[in-house]
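User: Predict the complex with manganese (II) ion.
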Amino acid sequence: MQKYNIMEEYGKRASNANLTKDLGLSNLENVYWNMSPAELIEDTILLGEGVLTDTGAIAINTGKFTGRSPEDRFIVCDEKTEDAVWWGKINKKFEPAKFDALFNRMKAYLVGKDVYVRDSYACADDNYRMNIRVVTELPWANMFAYNMFLRPTDEEIENFSPDWHIVCAPNFLADPEIDGTRQSNFAILNFTQKIIIIGGTKYTGEIKKGIFSVLNFILPHEKNVLSMHCSANVGKDGDTALFFGLSGTGKTTLSSDPNRRLIGDDEHGWDDNGSVFNFEGGCYAKTINLSAEKEPQIYNAIKFGAVLENIGFKEGTSTPDYDDVSITQNTRVSYPIYHIDNIMEPSIGKNPKNIFFLTCDAFGVLPPISRLTKAQAMYHFISGYTAKVAGTEDGVTEPQTVFSACFGAPFLPLHPAKYAELLGKKIENENVNVWLVNTGWSGGGYGEGERMSLSYTRAMITAAMEGKLDNVDFVQDEIFGLNIPTSCPEVPSEILTPRNTWKDKEAYDKKANDLAQRFIKNFETFEAGAPQEILDAAPKLLV
Ligand code: ATP
Ligand code: MN
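Assistant: Here is the predicted structure with manganese (II) ion placed in the model:
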């Protein structure tokens, strides 16, 4: 006999909360609203989707995708976005009618299935609060949303009215022929309907970075607020520090500092009233080679409520093995920000006193810390340099340069000049110190030298924040024009100037020149319209 679905709804929700009216989702089986972490963990385990570890955290696998899929991220091109978005390889167009058709197919797919709904919000500063209702097929994806976004109170849930919706159905696969996607997975942002749809991938980062992309459009474009891919913390005197950087450069690691209160680990806004606010309510840390000794705050945050992704286990136990990278190098954990001891509540700071641009230079030529002039700061912000080690591929030993404008190009719907202009004004007006920090290689490139020790990087950053680099001597690097301190408390002076750490000086000069050339080449796209001062901050090639 045909089973007629009667939607059963459980949990806390507003009296007018209605998935059929708001989203057109109908004939679902059970709808679980705002379940507690314990309930979501129970369901995850019952569905065979995860296991409990002896840390108290649950461990899940994200399947085929263990990272974001930038090529499958689209933005609906319509009246609202057509003239505002910087279209291209990063921001790919999707037709409005195709979006409706694909979303309809997702809705049909969800008929007769259980879904989990999470009411949450982004932006810790009430002036910019954006309510988000997340509908997920999987219970642990719902937990991810609970961990990463800000959590409304029970009372707020009873009166919750969503500004944006996310519908995430990883087991729904798109058909490129029918749907106009590139392949079976997709994440599509629709600014008119205020919906993000995600299918074909279980990677949780798509949920988080989807909302980040939305805010990177709305805040600068409509509210004149700078949105930033950075972490932030506050010292005892209330001094705020920002840490910009691409993936793996140290935003999460370096912002978790027991002596400073954490504002947030990845996404922030900075407005004209001097508010630096977290978009999120949680952290998403890498767990590769994680240890209690080196990163105690992150290690201890992995407890009940945290969700571990794609980790391995010590044989025959439920103990995570953070050195196991057999599934991916990008093993991760999400946890609510209150798993860190020393946090700023609410997650808001003042105008920053120090800004750090983190780069993981695998060529080993950039200094571990240097002070940037305003023009250099703009040059490096627009360049957004880091280098990835080739890593797993056989025979590939040469690091790959990555230039990603504003240290976050994949998440920026507007032209980089927009963010640069906002940052430039702020640096100009607020008298901020800007530092470039190389958390990458020293004493030679990847394969020759070693990665900078985390304790030295921490010491250099602490010294900068405490003003201990204000009165030391600086030397200027010939190629990059960077001002390098010649001494720093708790750090051996000989490592401060990279050329000194290389045995073969000629090899250093060659490599540095090579990197400089790549900076210059990359900047060609941005030359038109850039002020002369910024152009002058480019590296100078040795002849
Ligand atoms: P994402 O944007 O992907 O979240 P992230 O900038 O937050 O990236 P982290 O999660 O902080 O990057 O990753 C930095 C990694 O590099 C960590 O695994 C950390 O242990 C390691 N590491 C090694 N040496 C250093 C160093 N000197 N400074 C910072 N991190 C280091
Ligand atoms: Mn991070």
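The mean pLDDT is 96.
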